Amino acid sequence: xxxxxxxxxxxxxxxxxxKGHPEVLLITSRRAGRWIIPKGGAEEGVEPHDxxxxxxxxxxxxxxxxxxxxxxxxxxxxxxxxxxSVDLDVTVFLLNVTEELQSWPEQxxxxxxxxxxxxxxxxxxxxxxxxxxxxxxxxxxxxxxxxAVNHPA
Length: 153
What we know:
The structure is a single chain. The chain has about 150 residues and is an alpha+beta fold. It has one domain (about 5-150): Nucleoside Triphosphate Pyrophosphohydrolase, CATH 3.90.79.10. Helix content is about 25%, strand content about 40%. It is globular and about 45 Å long.
């Protein structure tokens, strides 16, 4: 593996609105079965947001409108089969899902699940990714409680 390519990844945070309430799509990782978002390594000649959208199609079977500007980033560690670990910088782009496919390239390797941003934030392992999900849709209401009041437009 090229160590420079492995250090930067681009991810899609697929979302949709159902009856005015936001949902995000999580998928399972191939080996450990952890809940994650679609992501892949940087490729020369491919725009980061386009790569994120392609990974959403390949890994989660969704298509839609990807935002050209990232919403944030987080750090991750990729454990290689050799036992070596690689530190990753993952840049995240919103993907407004317009099509959910019944058949896609990695459907036999992953599960997918639509969840509220709050529930999704509880399932992902990376705290900064969870914070990105919550920051998009949650903010304090009067009384200090959080509620889903914002959605990406």
